[in-house]
Amino acid sequence: MKKMSAVFVVLVFMASSLASCAGEYNKGQSGAVMGGVGGAVVGQAIGRSMEATLIGVAVGTMLGYIVGNEMDKTDRQQLNQVYETGPSGRQSSWQNPDSGNSYTVTPQPAVQRSSGPCRKAEIRAVIDGKNETTYSTACRDESGQWVLQ
Questions:
Q1: Max Cα separation, the chain?
Q2: pLDDT tens readout for residues 31-90
Q3: How far apart are CA 29 and CA 18, in angstroms?
Q4: 73-148 is classed in which CATH architecture?
Q5: Cβ contacts of 1 within 8 Å, gap of 6 or more
Q6: pLDDT digits (tens, 9 = 90+) for 109-141
Q7: Which of 44, 77, 39, 85 is nearest to 58 (CA)?
Q8: Calpha distance 57→18 (Å, rounded)
Q9: Strand 102-107 relative to strand 111-113: parallel, antiparallel, unpaired?
Q10: With contact defined as beta carbons under 8 Å apart, do 55 and 43 qualify?
Q11: Are 58 and 10 in contact (CB under 8 A)?
Q12: How many CB atoms within 10 Å of residue 130?
């Protein structure tokens, strides 16, 4: 029970931190949301308990925020290109010439939704020498750009 309380405190702290930026929706927040969802799925699959799911959410949210916040315009353009033309299940990699961060993205097949096509992807990043993994979903908007959900 104490562990669940600690996880809850961490989740509340992270949620309040993200909410403080409510006026500016940014890529870190998007990454946090996607990481949290991915972490919940992985936590539940591994631990099969509420505690494991909450831990997965906390870890996924943190990692997703870190990865999302570190991507600049060049990285977002590369990611958009992977969503647009990357073969499903095949890794696409690049290194940002300015930050030195590197990314490997493995897209999944597109799924048609009422709003248009969407794709999931696993994003592995090396940021400041640290390996991070997050999962994302992007859907094509009216202008043809892939937008992270």
A1: 48
A2: 555 566 666 656 566 767 777 677 777 767 766 665 555 567 788 888 889 999 999 999
A3: 7
A4: Roll (3.10)
A5: none
A6: 999 988 889 999 999 999 888 998 988 889 988
A7: 39
A8: 14
A9: unpaired
A10: yes
A11: yes
A12: 10
Whether this model's pTM surpasses 0.85: no
Mean pLDDT of the 91-108 span: 92
Nearest to 137 by CA among 146, 127, 148, 126: 148
Decide: residue 125, CB within 10 A, 0-12 exposed, 13-18 middle, 19+ buried. buried
Task: Give the whole-angstrom CA distance, residue 118 versus residue 137.
Answer: 7
Whole-angstrom distance, CA of residue 58 vs CA of residue 120 = 20
- Domain chopping of the chain, boundaries: 2-70, 73-148
How far is the C-alpha of 125 from the C-alpha of 45, rounded, in Å? 23
Could you give the angle at which helices 2-19 and 50-70 cross, rounded to 10 degrees? 30
Q: 108: which DSSP letter?
A: -
